[in-house]
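Deliverable D2.4 — example input (structure tokens):
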């Protein structure tokens, strides 16, 4: 009868025992238009159990399916006859005792004891002679070691049947079998575990009992029977239905390779279908046995009509547009496994006028053999389904969206924050008032009756449950007639979500007892309205813990302070509130967070039922909290006026986008995503002036401190209170990808204020937070405020302190962070070495992630520096510095090449010596973490982490086609979620990535959000379009039951991904002004810009099928490129998309490719340090942990063939007053004759251990370099010196020895090394010549080449070089004939000799000898006249 069953009632037990049974007439047909059942005793119960449907011809609607499949268990398995299973304990909700008999090795039973027992009761006595145990997923020490298997006839007296000692399970998920002699039938069996392998926890994945019978079981109908719901779920309450205590289970197995199907009858009904009739239900398909074909999702409720037709044959669609047949539900992947999913369909659209005769459950799949199991609940048919009204855009926003989440699986991991945009406080209900992380869980926290309960309403400042809440203050109404009970469970009030309104500007709930609570927010304050039902009302005040203070006065004033969750700079919060009704009793309470923080006010509500609480907070002082309340809620304000102002603020934000061609569900998704975007980050400043003349100050929290600032009192902070607006609560690792670009596009004025608010952190504490909560949290990788703020700047936003923002980014990128530099709370980890090596070594945890994020941030800094250099507001004296820093950071953005291992075609870690972590034989890209290389994912999801330089990445893989093939393989390789690697166990991101069901792509986590857009770089934009539209169609569903996201939403990032994607745009190359183009979701979307202009996106023939772009016009002009600049949009634009159902050639040409740092077809070539000998070792040891004084000129000799040094860096020492203020850098070809190639005066190093970059004024391929200090400290101290050069391109052909001419070079890079060419050399367009220590007897002619580099070359005839697009360097070269240089870029001709005239004309930059003159026997003319 299925893998296991629980007896819940006598009638249900009968249904379990006999397949194909019609139950007693519990649900006789009732004519009408409505029907409902949640499968509880007070609802309609099924008419049939385990009974197959027969069609009008009498043919069973079942084929290739059985109710009792061969589960792959041991022969004679009788677990399907178990009706009850108990244990000495378990670990709800997921590691419960029912898991030990579910036949699924990926689940387990766990008890927090060193010993344990499991007891199973059978339907009827049976003789067990064989059993098996399966080890669970982690920690082998928890496995059973010694045990007894016992039998009992009555459950009291036990007989030992088998004893095992010293057993072990070397592998995870390993099944071991045991046989013994037994001839007695027992009704009860018990596994009594007397020892494990040394921990205080016992775990077991599966226990199988067998009677030894190897005869195949006969097929039975698919099971469809009421039980007590799923045994476990990462998000739902275990052992319950959706709304009640029971649900209908469907289960069985498919036995055939092709189509298998089964439709069972559930209810005998008589329901008329009207034009407005709707069917709805909840369905929970289990991920049975971890089968990644997801067979349990091929299920749906079906309806049999009185005319012989079925709903599954009528092309009915659910509320998202997916077909509602069982097979369509499975193939569209619209159901999440191991979670409840809501489905609705308009019956009137396909069946108006019909009558429903039977309600069925159907399974229909072509996935092949496998087992399936799931549950349905709350089946409803109604003629008048309730429809919410949406009068304003803010009415669409739903704040409970994303709250059906837990530690184990995120569908957003949000909470229903009621606030104003970017507000100082959140106000939220709490289903668990003792939690500072998961404040509100949509269903998981339900009570014993499976009803959600609220334990408190709180002021919150939580940016994410993974970060935790801080600075909290709770209030909870109570109807107690005497002193209320502050115990959180006792004071909790049950409610239904149907009686809850959760909007950005308003939260309201009516509890089951009739009491009502409402909240309307302001920036620093809120108004609560409580409507009581009895003669007395109470407000319980409380907090998370006893870290705080509370004073309740008889005049109705409430004051206090909160120190909850101090850390990362958080300071004391002060609270002031007043009530509008006389207080009849008040006092302290026990049982809550603590005696210091728990108390109550009581009111006489016998006649007037409403009590209003006005409350405000401050981080400055209690007086400021009182002032904040007065500034934001006037005495004559009502609850409705406060709510109206908050709604106006949200409408003003949300109306930035309006769309046509959207369903209500899509509009809820759209505006809820905009709400999340503008909810964060949050103000932490306060008006200490007046409403008419505001003066903004803030308590400084920009630190890592976990203690209160000295001088803090119960009424005033001890923190510094300084001028300025500051913002907090942002995880830049997440938000840089889409959130900050969204602010720049949708709300640029506010974007500038937000940037300035985080730059204030830099001014207050010296750094911008990597993860602000509120100060410096040591979390995640990358200093991604750098690229975030650069993105805002290059898109034209100027209303912030641009220079300070740039300086903050430069500090992150060039200064060794304080403390342990490999594990710092600010700055870039490992920078003391990585800045010189070009990669972050394995000495830093998640070093690959640190490195790759760093290159993206360097890209943003480079673009910001370049724009600053061109900004008219930039002082002329600063422009040269910005230009050379732009060049330096642009090169650093290419350093990803140092983290790419060509032997495996993946990025992986390498140690300080350059050794790769894994060999090609041992590297496994599907393993998460890879021994702490990657953050929250695996090598596959980091294989494309170069969004700023797609063509450079393509080059590493072998070209654009190879990049596309790599992406194809990525999306075709399934993520199983079973390779935890260095994470040590399965984390929520692994389950979420698995359930995205799009290959390895972990769309559920931000680090992977850019990947499908990389197809644009590969010239295959149609694949981007297909993938993105699939995500938009099915991974933002379930808003109405607290879902809505595929993973953590994270401060607006996943929301902003949707917003951009729905517009057909994406900020792939964040930190630049460009967007790539995708596939718009709606037929029309309008973005209302700050400047009054509009971006209109038209796609009139858009549909769920027409997802491919056939053509695009921008402002009426054909646009074939797959990218568009911000400038083209910022002043308003009209984008007209032509859409179709098949991929087109649009955007596939080379000229259509998005911009990239590396030109198409070329390899990325970052600057690299020139290897040298000589000089103090501390200056060339690739670390700033060693320093040396520079008292005399320091001289180095270049090792090997010299490259052209174009930049150099100096790194300051650790102490103030030791920096050089001026210096000269000299070069020499022989070590005797020196020329100054760069000199500096009046330079400054702002920070200790700062690396500054400088461009060489006269670069060349010198053999020797010398640095001479010329100012500042008498003995300046440096930590490192780099001489940076771009490596010469790889040689296509290398020539050495004697060569008979002529030598014609038509393509590629030809290198002469120690060669003697007897004849002329010709270099033609597109080719390059690099010659070292060689002789050419004939003339050399170069025309249109990419480069010509001659070092110590003897040329026996004339040299003519013209129209070269790249480098022209002629150094230490003897030319016996004339030299002509024409129309080149910036030729260098130095330290050589010319046997004839030297003529130069029309070169972009006049040729130079870098101060090392040539010997010229003939006349010099043109640009070379003075050489």
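Example output (designed residues):
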């Amino acid at each position: 009868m299925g893998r296991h069953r629980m007896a819940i009632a006598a009638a249900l037990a009968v249904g379990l025992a006999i397949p194909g049974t019609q139950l007693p007439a519990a649900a006789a047909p009732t004519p009408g238009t409505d029907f409902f059942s949640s499968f509880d005793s007070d609802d309609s119960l099924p008419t049939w159990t385990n009974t197959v449907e027969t069609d009008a011809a009498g043919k069973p609607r079942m084929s290739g399916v059985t109710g009792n499949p061969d589960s792959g268990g041991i022969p004679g398995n009788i677990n399907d006859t178990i009706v009850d299973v108990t244990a000495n304990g378990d670990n709800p909700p997921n590691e419960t005792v029912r898991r030990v008999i579910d036949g699924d090795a990926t689940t387990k039973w766990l008890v927090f004891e060193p010993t344990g027992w499991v007891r199973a009761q059978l339907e009827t006595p049976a003789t067990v002679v064989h059993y098996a145990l399966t080890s669970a997923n982690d920690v082998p020490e928890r496995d059973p070691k010694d045990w007894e298997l016992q039998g009992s006839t009555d459950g009291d007296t036990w007989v030992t049947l088998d004893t095992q000692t010293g057993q072990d399970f070397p592998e995870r998920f390993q099944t071991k079998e045991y046989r013994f002699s037994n001839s007695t039938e027992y009704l009860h069996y018990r596994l009594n575990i007397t020892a494990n392998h040394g921990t205080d926890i016992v775990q077991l994945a599966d226990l199988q009992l067998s009677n030894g019978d190897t005869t195949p079981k006969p097929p039975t109908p698919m099971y469809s029977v009421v039980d007590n719901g799923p045994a476990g779920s990462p998000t739902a309450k275990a052992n319950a239905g959706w709304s009640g205590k029971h649900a209908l289970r469907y289960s069985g197995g498919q036995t055939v390779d092709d189509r298998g199907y089964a439709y069972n009858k559930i209810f005998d009904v008589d329901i008329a279908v009207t034009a407005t009739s709707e069917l709805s239900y909840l369905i929970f398909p289990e991920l049975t046995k971890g089968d990644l074909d997801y067979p349990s999702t091929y299920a749906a409720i079906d309806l049999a009509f009185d005319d012989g037709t079925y709903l599954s044959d009528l092309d009915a669609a659910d509320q998202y547009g997916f077909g509602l047949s069982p097979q369509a539900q499975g193939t569209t992947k619209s159901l999440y496994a191991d979670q409840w999913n809501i489905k609705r369909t308009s019956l009137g659209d396909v069946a108006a006028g019909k009558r429903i005769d039977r309600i069925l459950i159907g399974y229909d799949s072509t996935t092949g053999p496998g087992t399936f199991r799931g549950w349905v609940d709350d089946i409803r048919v109604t003629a008048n389904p309730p429809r919410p009204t949406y009068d304003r855009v803010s009415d669409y926003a739903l704040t409970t969206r994303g709250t059906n989440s837990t530690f184990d699986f995120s569908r957003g991991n949000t909470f229903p924050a009621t606030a104003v945009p970017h507000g100082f406080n959140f106000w939220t209900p709490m289903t668990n008032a003792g939690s500072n992380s998961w404040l509100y869980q949509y269903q998981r926290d339900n009570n014993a009756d499976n009803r959600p309960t609220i334990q408190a309403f709180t002021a919150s400042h939580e940016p994410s449950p993974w970060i935790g809440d801080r600075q909290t203050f709770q209030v909870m109404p109570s109807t107690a007639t005497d002193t209320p009970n502050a115990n959180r469970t006792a004071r909790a009030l049950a409610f239904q979500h149907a009686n809850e309104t959760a909007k950005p500007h308003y939260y309201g709930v009516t509890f089951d007892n009739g009491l009502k609570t409402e909240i309307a927010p302001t920036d620093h304050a809120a108004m609560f309205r409580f409507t009581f039902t009895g003669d007395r009302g109470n407000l319980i005040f409380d907090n998370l813990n006893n870290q705080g203070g509370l004073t309740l006065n008889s005049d109705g004033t409430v004051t206090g302070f909160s120190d909850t969750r101090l850390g990362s700079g958080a300071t004391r919060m002060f609270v002031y509130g007043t009530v509008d009704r006389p207080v009849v009793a008040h006092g302290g309470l026990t049982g809550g967070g603590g005696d210091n923080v728990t108390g109550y006010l009581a009111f006489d509500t016998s006649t007037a039922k409403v009590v209003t609480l006005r409350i405000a907070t401050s981080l400055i002082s209690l007086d400021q909290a009182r002032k904040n309340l007065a500034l934001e809620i006037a005495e004559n304000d009502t609850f409705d006026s406060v709510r109206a102002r908050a709604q106006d603020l949200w409408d003003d934000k949300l109306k930035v986008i309006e769309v046509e061609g959207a369903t209500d569900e899509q509009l809820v998704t759209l505006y809820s995503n905009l709400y999340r975007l503008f909810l964060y980050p949050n103000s932490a400043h306060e008006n200490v002036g007046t409403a008419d003349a505001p003066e903004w100050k803030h308590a400084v929290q920009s630190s890592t401190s976990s203690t209160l600032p000295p001088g803090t009192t119960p009424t005033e902070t001890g923190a510094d209170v300084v001028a300025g607006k500051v913002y907090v609560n942002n995880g830049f690792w997440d938000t840089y990808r889409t959130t900050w670009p969204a602010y720049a596009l949708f709300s640029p004025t506010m974007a500038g204020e937000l940037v300035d608010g985080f730059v204030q952190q830099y001014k207050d504490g010296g750094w911008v937070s990597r993860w602000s909560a509120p100060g410096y949290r040591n979390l995640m990788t990358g200093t991604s405020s750098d690229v975030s703020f650069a993105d805002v700047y290059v898109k034209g936003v100027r209303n912030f302190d641009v220079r300070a923002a740039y300086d903050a980014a430069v500090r992150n990128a060039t200064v060794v962070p304080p403390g342990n530099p490999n594990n710092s709370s600010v700055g870039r980890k490992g920078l003391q070495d990585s800045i010189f090596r070009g990669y972050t070594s394995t000495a830093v945890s998640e070093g690959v992630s640190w490195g790759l994020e760093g290159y993206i941030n360097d890209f943003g800094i480079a673009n910001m520096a370049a724009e600053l250099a061109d900004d008219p507001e930039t002082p002329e004296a600063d422009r040269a510095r910005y230009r050379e820093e732009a060049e330096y950071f642009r090169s650093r953005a290419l350093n990803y090449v140092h983290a790419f291992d060509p032997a495996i075609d993946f990025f992986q870690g390498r140690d300080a010596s350059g050794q790769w972590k894994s060999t090609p034989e041992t590297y496994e890209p599907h393993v998460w973490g890879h021994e702490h290389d990657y953050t929250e994912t695996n090598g596959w999801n980091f294989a494309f982490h170069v969004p700023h330089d797609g063509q450079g990445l393509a080059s590493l893989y072998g070209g654009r086609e190879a990049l596309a093939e790599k992406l194809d393989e990525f999306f075709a390789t399934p993520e199983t979620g079973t390779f935890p690697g260095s994470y040590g166990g399965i984390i929520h991101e692994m389950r979420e990535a698995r359930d995205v069901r799009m290959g390895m792509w972990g769309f559920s986590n931000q680090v992977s959000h850019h990947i499908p857009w990389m197809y644009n770089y590969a010239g295959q934009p149609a694949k981007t379009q297909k993938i993105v539209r699939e995500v938009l169609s099915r991974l933002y569903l379930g808003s109405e039951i607290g879902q809505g996201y595929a993973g953590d939403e994270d401060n607006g990032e996943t929301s902003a991904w949707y917003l951009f994607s729905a517009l057909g745009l994406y900020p792939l190359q964040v930190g630049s002004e460009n967007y790539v183009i995708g596939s718009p979701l709606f037929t029309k979307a309008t973005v209302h810009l700050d400047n009054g202009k509009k971006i209109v996106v038209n796609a009139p023939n858009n549909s769920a099928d027409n997802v491919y772009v056939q053509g695009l016009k921008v402002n009426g002009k054909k646009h074939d490129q797959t990218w568009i600049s911000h400038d083209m949009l910022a002043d308003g634009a009209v984008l007209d998309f032509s859409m179709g159902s098949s991929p087109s050639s649009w955007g596939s040409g080379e000229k259509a490719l998005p911009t990239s740092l590396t030109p198409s077809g070329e390899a990325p070539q970052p600057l690299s340090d020139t290897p040298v000998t000589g000089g103090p070792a501390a200056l060339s040891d690739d670390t700033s942990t060693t320093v040396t004084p520079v008292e005399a000129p320091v001289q180095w000799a270049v090792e090997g063939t010299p490259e052209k040094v174009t930049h150099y860096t100096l790194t300051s020492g650790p102490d103030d007053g030791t920096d050089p203020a001026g210096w000269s850098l000299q070069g020499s070809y022989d070590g005797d004759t020196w020329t100054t190639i760069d000199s500096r005066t009046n330079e400054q190093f702002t920070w200790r251990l700062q690396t500054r970059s400088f461009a060489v004024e006269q670069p060349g391929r010198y053999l020797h370099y010398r640095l001479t200090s010329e100012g500042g400290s008498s003995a300046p101290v440096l930590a490192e010196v780099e001489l940076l050069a771009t490596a010469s391109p790889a040689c296509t052909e290398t020539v050495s020895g004697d060569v008979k001419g002529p030598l014609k070079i038509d393509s590629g890079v030809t290198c002469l090394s120690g060669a003697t060419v007897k004849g002329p050399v010709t270099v033609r367009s597109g080719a390059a010549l690099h010659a070292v220590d060689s002789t050419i007897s004939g003339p050399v002619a170069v025309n249109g080449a990419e480069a010509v580099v001659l070092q110590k070359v003897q040329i026996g005839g004339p040299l003519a070089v013209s129209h070269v697009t790249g480098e022209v360097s002629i150094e230490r070269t003897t030319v016996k004939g004339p030299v002509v240089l024409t129309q080149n870029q910036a030729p260098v001709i130095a330290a050589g000799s010319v046997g004839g005239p030297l003529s130069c004309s029309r070169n972009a930059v006049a040729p130079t000898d870098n101060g090392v003159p040539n010997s010229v026997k003939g006349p010099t003319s043109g640009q070379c006249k003075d050489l």
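Residues 1178 and 1186 are 5 Å apart (CA to CA).
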